[in-house]
Each structure stands twice: as structure tokens, then as C-alpha cells.
């Protein structure tokens, strides 16, 4: 199999990531793989399953068939674990038992995969890789997916990390640094979406919750500005034909959607949209 010399950038968005799962599943079925992948938050889960060549795996992780696969905590467990989601289930039980992750294929792949995290000490994005250690790979993915206030901070190599989307939601700058001429960006929100500034009350909560990490707080409070600036830049690049962007054309699901039929419909939207746009993507890659 010949890899396309290109970089795929995968936005996060919690359960909205099922849209990306549909997009990538179609690409995997068509045996279209690229040299470089950058995943952010939920996009990191999609990224590693793309590199391990496991179509359907991220979908099955995010849309469990029965209650035994439900990764949401009830109120009692939320208070106990300080998390809305069972991160041990997602990043330990799933990859190692329930929905085995193909570590061998991942570690021996010619594709380079970077997982975006936010360093709580510096407030800056880090683009992390792991090519041999199973536990560390899943810990990095867990860190990338750990949403502020809703899930705990994750320590990797003794350093505290949170959601990669806080510092670099759509790492187009990183993609340019990698140097591939072709860049594919998969977003999980509609065209024209822009983030709102957190309310004064929410800003106060962030400051209190992360008072030990002032640089992290600064990054969180600047997130909407940085995100919107990135979206404006992406729109310019897309108009010039310099990047290929795929985004939902229907209303996205809620960030923590639980309804199986709703999630499956959003997954199918991603799959069918990629099917319709496949010729356009190939034309972009080959021009």
C-alpha cells in the first residue's frame, strides 16, 4: 500500500467525533492512508484507530451496543471519580479487553501520528508520539481527551496534561510545520461556527478549579479567540484551494450525546459525506 504524502488534521468535540469516525471508516475501506495524522481530543481516538487500520473501532467505542459499554458515570460515581466519563473503561478496558486495539499494526506503521495535549504547567500545546509503549500511548490519548472540569488531569511522564483542544483545537500551524503540501482537515462543527467567550461565572469556576495552573487558565480563557482566529484562517486557505476541509452538513450532535440512534445517524452522515466527496479529495491530492 502506498501512502499519500499528506497530513490529516482531526478536530475533537467529544461525541461529535463519531462524524470523523464515519469519514475515516470510508477512507479505510477504500485503502486511502496518508503519511501524517494529527489528532486532537476525540480526534486522537480516531487518529490512532486510523493508523492501526481498524475501521469501525472508534464508532463501536463511542456508540456502545449495550449498557455494559456505557462510559458515562451516574451522579454518585461522578462525585466519587470527579469525572463524567469512565476513563479507565475507555482507555484501559476497551483497548486491552472489550474492543482490542491493534498495537502491533500501530507501532509498526509507516504513518506518523501526533496526539495533541495541553501542558497544564505551560498552557501550551504539545504534539506527542509513542511508538512502543502501550500504556503510555493510551495515557497520552486519555490526556488529549480529558475535558476541563469534566474529567481529571492526566500525568504523563510526571507532567500534568489536559484536553489538547484547549491550546490547539485545529492544529493547522503544526500541519504546515510538518511540511506536506497537501492537508486534509476534518472538523466536527458546521461552517461558520465560532466559539463564544466563557461567561464571567464560568471564568471564575475555571480560575478556582485550576488556581495551581495560571498558564492553563490563561489558555482556557483565550481559547475562543484562538479558535475563531484559526477558523477564519482555515476559511481563507479553503477558498484558495490550499487545504481540503470536510465538515458536517447537518446539525452536529450534542458534545455529550448519549442517544444511540442520534450518534449512529451522525456517524452515517460522516461516512456518506466522505463517499460523496471522495472524487473531490482524490482530485485535490493529485493536483
Describe this structure in words.
With 287 residues, the chain is α/β, with parallel strands linked by helices. 47% of the residues lie in helices and 15% in strands. It is built from eleven helices and eight strands. The protein has helices at 17-29, 42-51, 57-62, 75-81, 87-98, 103-107, 134-145, 172-178, 200-209, 214-239, 260-286; strands spanning 4-10, 34-40, 112-119, 125-128, 154-156, 159-163, 182-186, 244-246. Strands 1, 2, 3, 4, 5, 6, 7 and 8 form an eight-stranded mixed sheet that branches. The radius of gyration is 18 Å and the shape is globular. The two termini are 20 Å apart.
Query: Count the helices. How many?
Result: 11
Shape assignment: globular
Radius of gyration over alpha carbons?
Answer: 18 Å
The portion of residues assigned to helices is 40-55%
Largest sheet: 8 strands, mixed
Question: Termini separation (Å)?
Answer: 20 Å
Low-confidence stretches: none
Count of β-strands: 8
Strand % is 5-15%
Structural classification: alpha/beta
Q: List the helices and strands in order.
A: EHEHHHHHEEHEEHEHHEH
The overall pLDDT, averaged over residues, is: 94
Amino acid at each position: 500500500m502506498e501512502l499519500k504524502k499528506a497530513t490529516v488534521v482531526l478536530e475533537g468535540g467529544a461525541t461529535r467525533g463519531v462524524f470523523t469516525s464515519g469519514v475515516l471508516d470510508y477512507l479505510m475501506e477504500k485503502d486511502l492512508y496518508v503519511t501524517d495524522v494529527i489528532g486532537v481530543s476525540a480526534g486522537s481516538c480516531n487518529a490512532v484507530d486510523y493508523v492501526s487500520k481498524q475501521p469501525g473501532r472508534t464508532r463501536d467505542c463511542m456508540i456502545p451496543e449495550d449498557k455494559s459499554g456505557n462510559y458515562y458515570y451516574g451522579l454518585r460515581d461522578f462525585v466519587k471519580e470527579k469525572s463524567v466519563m469512565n476513563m479507565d473503561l475507555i482507555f484501559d478496558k476497551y483497548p486491552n479487553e472489550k474492543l482490542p486495539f491493534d498495537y502491533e499494526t500501530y507501532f509498526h506503521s509507516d504513518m506518523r501520528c501526533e496526539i495533541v495535549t495541553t501542558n497544564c504547567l505551560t498552557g501550551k500545546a504539545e504534539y506527542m508520539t509513542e511508538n512502543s509503549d502501550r500504556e503510555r500511548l493510551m495515557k497520552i490519548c486519555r490526556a488529549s481527551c480529558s475535558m476541563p472540569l469534566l474529567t481529571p488531569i492526566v500525568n504523563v511522564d510526571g507532567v500534568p496534561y489536559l484536553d489538547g483542544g484547549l491550546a490547539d483545537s485545529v492544529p493547522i500551524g503544526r500541519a504546515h510545520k510538518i511540511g506536506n503540501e497537501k492537508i486534509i482537515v476534518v472538523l466536527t462543527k458546521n461552517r461558520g461556527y465560532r466559539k463564544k467567550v466563557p461567561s464571567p461565572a464560568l471564568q471564575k469556576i475555571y480560575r478556582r478549579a485550576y488556581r495551581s495552573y495560571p498558564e492553563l487558565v490563561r489558555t482556557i480563557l483565550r481559547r475562543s479567540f484562538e479558535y475563531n482566529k484559526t477558523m477564519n484562517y482555515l476559511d481563507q486557505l479553503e477558498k484558495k484551494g490550499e487545504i481540503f476541509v470536510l465538515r458536517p452538513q447537518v446539525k452536529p450532535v450534542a458534545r455529550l450525546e448519549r442517544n444511540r440512534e442520534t450518534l449512529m445517524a451522525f456517524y452515517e452522515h460522516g461516512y456518506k459525506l466522505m463517499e460523496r466527496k471522495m472524487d473531490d479529495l482524490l482530485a485535490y491530492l493529485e493536483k
